[in-house]
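Checked the freezer inventory, then went back to the computational side. Two predictions to log before the end of the day. The first one is the construct we discussed on Monday; recording sequence and C-alpha cells without edits.
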Amino acid sequence: MSNYVIETENLSKQFGKKMALSNLDLKIKTGGIHAIVGSNGAGKSTLFKLLLGVLSPSHGSSYILGQDSQSLTPELRGKIGFVNEEHTLPGWTKVKNILKMEQSFFPKWNEAIYHQVIGNFNVDPEQKVNQLSRGERAGFNLAMALAKRPQVLILDEPTLGLDVVAKQAFLESVLFTEKSEESTVIYCSHQMDEIERVADQLIVMEKGNLINTSTPDAFCQRIHYWVVDMAGQKPPKKQIPGFLQIREIEGDYHYMVIDQGDELKEVFQQLGAVSAYKSSVSLNQAVNGFLSRNHMSPEQLT
C-alpha cells in the first residue's frame, strides 16, 4: 500500500494557450497538514479539480488514496472531504435538513466530532442556510466534512472572508481533528499566519510548477535578509547571488537572498558596503520574496 495520499505524474492541464499545470510531479505523504501556497494563477485550484475528477488532464495522471482520479468510486469519494472558499450549500433549506441528509449518506458519521466542531460556531439547526453568516456557514461545512471522518481533507481557501473570531475557531477545529482522527489535511491559503500555525509541510507552486516542498522551518532557513550600508550607489541586483528582493529602509538596503551563507558578506564588501549583517525572515516574508523573484523580468534584475 502506498505511503502517499496524493501522487501526480507529469500532470498537465491546458486551457487554450494557458498552461495551468505543467508536468507536475507531486507526492504528499499520509498524515499531517500539508499547506499549498502560491500566487493567483499558480494552479492550486486546477490541481484540486483534477484530483477530485472534476477536470480531466491534458496529459499525465493523478492519484488520490491510491486510485486514479479519473475513476473514483462512490466508496472512495466518501473518504475524501472538501471545503472551498464559497462554502456552497442550498440556502433555501434548514441546517437540520442538510445535516439529516448528510448523516444518511455516510455510515461512519461521527456525531461527537460534529458537535465538537459545530460548538465553536453559533449555528442554530432551525435556521435556513441563507440566514447564516459566512463564518457560520464555514463552520457548518467543516463540521460536516470532519464528521464524515475523511482519510484526506482538502481545504481550498476556507477562511477567506471570515472575521478574526470565526477564523480562530476554524483553525482550532482543523488542528483538533487532524490530531484526534489522523486525517491527512491539504490546506490551501494565502494567509501565511494560518500556514505558520497549522502546517507540517509547505508546498509552493508557481505558474503551474512545483518549486518547493519542505517543512516551513526548512524553507525559512534557506532565505535571509542582509542589511547593508552602501557607501556609494547600490550595486545591480544581478551582482547579488541568490537575489530575491530589495527594500530601502532608513538609508540601509535590505537584500533578501536565498541559499546563501555567511560568505555573502564578503561579496557586499567587495561591492562597496561599509557594513553588512544577516537577519532571519518570517514565513510570510520568505514566501512573498520567493514568489516575487519568479515574477521579475530580466530588466527588473538590473
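The second is the one RB wanted added to the comparison set:
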Amino acid sequence: MLKKIKDKYNLIPLSVKASVWFVLCGFLKDIIDILATPVFTRILTAEQYGIYNVYNSWFQIFKIVFTLYLFSDVFNVGLVKFEEEQDRFISATLGFITTVTGAFLILYLIQHYFWEQLLDLPECMILLLYIQVLSYVPYHCWIRRERFSYRYRNVVIVSSLYVFLQPALGILAICFLDIPMNPGYTRIAVAVLVQFLIGLSLYIEMMRRGKTFFHGGYWKYSLKTGSVLIPYNLSKIVLNQSDRIMINYFSGKADTGIYSVAHSAAFVVQVVMDGLNGAFVPWLYKKFKKKDYKGIVPVVNVMILLASCGVFVISIIAPEVMKILADTSYYEGVYCIPSLACSVYMIFIYTLFSDIELFYERNGYVTLASAVGSIINILLNAIFIPLYGFTAAGYTTLASYTVMCLGHYFFMKKCLKDENVDANKIYNLKIVMLTSLTLILFSIACNTLYEYTVLRIILLSVLILGGFIFRNKLINIYREVKKNG
C-alpha cells in the first residue's frame, strides 16, 4: 500500500509537487499561529499580549518603508527578468535593502527620543525592529528563489523551523526562564532571535553566491519598481494594522491585546479565502487571456457561497471561539468578531475585483482604492475609538473595507468597459451586492445573539439543514464548477 502511494507520488510532476508543498508551508504558519494563541493569552496578561501586537503592527509598516517590499512580487519579476544572473541580482537586492535600512537606522539614532514617543516603544524594541527587518528579508528572498527552481525540500525544513521555533521558544522563555523584562517584550526578543539566526545564515549564503553588494542597474530597478508600489503595499498594511496602533494610543495596551485576539479569531476565515483566491486567479487569468469568459460566474458564485458560510459560522460561534483562544479577561473582544469576519469577506470580494484591474495593468486604480480605504480607516478610528472604545475599531474596519470594495467595483467595471467585456459574464454583480449587504446587516445584528445560546444553535442548525436539503443542487453546482476547470 505504502509502495503504491510512493510510486504515484514519484510520478507527480516536480512543479506540481513543489506547488503543493509550498501551499502547505504557507498554511503551516497560520495553523501554528492559531494553536499558539490560546497558550500566549493564558501566560500573558491582556496588556502584555497587547505589547507584542503593537510591536508587530509597527514592524508590518517598517518592513515596507525600509525595504520597498522588494522581497515580494517585484522580486519574482526580477528573478525572471535577470534569470541569467539570478545570484547577482539577489545579493544586490539584499545590498540595497541593507543600505536603505541602515540609512533609516542613522535617522532614528539622531532623533531617537522623538521616535520612541511616537511609536510608544522603548529603545531596545525599536532597535529590534531594524534587526528583524534585516532578518526577515533574506528568509523571504531565499524562499522565493527556491520556489523559482522548485526546490521544495529545503523550504519545508527551514520554514518549519522558522515558524515553529518562534512561538515554542517564546513559551519556554516566558514560563521557565527568569528574564528581567516584561514577558511581552520577552516574546518579541525570542522571536527576533530565531529570525536573526536563520536570516543571517541565509543572508551570508546568498551574498557568498552573488558576490555583489552594489550594482547600479539592479539598484535602479529596485528603486524604480519598489517605490511605485509603496502606496499600494503600505495602504494594505495600514488598513490592517492602524486599528491596533490607534487602540493602543487611545485605550491602552490591554484593549489592544483583547482586540488582537478577536482579530485573530475572525481572520481564521481568511486562510480559507486566500486558498480559494490563490487557486482561482491563475485559472481566471488563463480564461481572460483566451477571452473565454464562459463558466466564470458559477465558479465565483460557489466561492462567494463558501466565503459567506465561513463568515456566518465564525460569527455565530464567536463566544465559543474566544473561550478557546483566551481566558475570560479577553471575552469582551467577542463583540468585534462579527464585524471583523465580515471585513474578511469584503477583502475577499474586493480582491475579486482588483484581480481584474491587475490583469489589465491598471495598477493606479488598485493603489487609489486602497489608499482611500486606509485614510478613511484612520479618520474613523480617530473619531470613534475615543467615543466607544476598542469595539468600534471592528466597525470602522468594516466600513473602510466596504468603501474600498465599492471603489474596486467601479474601477473594475471601468476596466471591463474599456476592454469591451460584459461585467455580467465575469461576476453576477447582483449576487455579490445582495450577499455583501446581507452579511453587513448580519454582522451588526449578531452581537445581540450572544446571550441566547439556544437561538444560535437553531441558526447554525438551519444552515446545516439547508445544506442537507439543497445537497443535490450543491452537488450540481460542484459538477458545473468541475466541468469548467
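For RB: The chain is about 85% helix and 0% strand. Residues 251-483 form one domain. Let me know if you want it refolded.
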